[in-house]
Amino acid sequence: MAQSLAPECTSLKLKYDACFNSWFEGYLEPAVAVPSTDRAAYARAKAEEYDRKCGAVWGSYRACVEKAMEEKGLSELVVRAREASTSG
């Protein structure tokens, strides 16, 4: 797995990657077996599971990366890129 934008965020990234990969594998395997009439409920339940299992570590990792981007002067570039992608 790749390093984070900032070295101080890499341990959080690795924790998040492991959590997400574990959750996503559990999401995909049974998803194909769920009848189409039950998929919305299944997706909601899996979203709640993600929040419980991975939400906190995602929030910590995101905050670390946002702080690093601000310190490196990249935040404004990201804002402009997002604006350009939605105005296209």
UniProtKB/TrEMBL annotation:
Domain of life: Eukaryota
UniProt-recorded name of the protein: Mitochondrial distribution/morphology family 35/apoptosis
Organism field: Vararia minispora EC-137
Taxonomy of the source species: Eukaryota, Fungi, Dikarya, Basidiomycota, Agaricomycotina
